Amino acid sequence: MDKIDRLKIFCLVAEKQSFAQAAVQLGLPRSNVTYAIQALEKEYEVLLFYRTTRKVALTHEGSLFYDEAMRLVAQLKELNRFKTQVRSQEGKISIGMPKRLATQVLIPNLKSFYQRYPKVKVLINGSDDFSNLIEQQLDCVVRVGQVQDEYLLIKPICQTEIWTLAAPQYLTEFGIPKDFDELQQHFAVDYHVAKHYRELSELVFKNHRVKMPYRLLIENTEAYIQAGLNGLGIIQIPAFDAKNYVQQGRLQRLFEHVPRSELPVNILLTDRQYRPEYFQDFIDWLNDLLKSELAVHC
């Protein structure tokens, strides 16, 4: 019998004002109830009950002890409720990921996860900045790019290609560049998450980095893509984000013959020993989803 059990017995004796009635309700021998109370009195060096042949009553110290014991028992019930929620697959998952991955991949497919776990809440932190799993108290993070978090578990998904693109109206105005030298007569859309000014933009390929002029500096992905779609310059974005625009004819691929740079896609997790089943299933589901959506370039 642990301390919590003894505290529960104590509370019941206090409420019934009877060792015998408490024993009957709990289905225990009266000697077990007596031992539980004696053990508490010995541990805390306090007399909890006045005992007579006819009556059991709390001492003054026993009344104070009862208030604290009831508070502990109530807190334990809350903890047990949490355990019940986990067993019933009820809880929440907080995930950080690039905004475009959230809007283009995760959100359109979430219904299939909710069909399996309708009581699980998913909290999405969609940001162009790298989500910090520890500082932001996230359960997991999807990161496109290199990972340097040495204290996190890394679950590799695949490599995503970076495509170079421009809108048809831009190419009508400036022409289609045939080689890197011609890019000096073109404009890129420059993109930096942090506010930073530089004289030239840069296109990145697998084996080359090409500096070129720009007229527009953008600090978030959505605006960057919109600038490209509206013919304001050449852009480079992951293939998963570009393929629909290319299929619709809204963007045209450039330098397809040049080896493209690639970025790793990983799921980051903390090294937690105990994970609810719904969370582990979410990670497996997300892994399959990302591989499926990125299949063209994995």
TrEMBL record:
The keyword Plastid does not apply. The keyword NADP does not apply. One of its GO terms (molecular function) is sequence-specific DNA binding. GO terms for biological process: DNA-templated transcription. Keywords: DNA-binding, Transcription, Transcription regulation. Residues 1-59 form the HTH lysR-type domain. Belongs to the LysR transcriptional regulatory family. This is HTH lysR-type domain-containing protein. It comes from Acinetobacter venetianus (strain ATCC 31012 / DSM 23050 / BCRC 14357 / CCUG 45561 / CIP 110063 / KCTC 2702 / LMG 19082 / RAG-1).
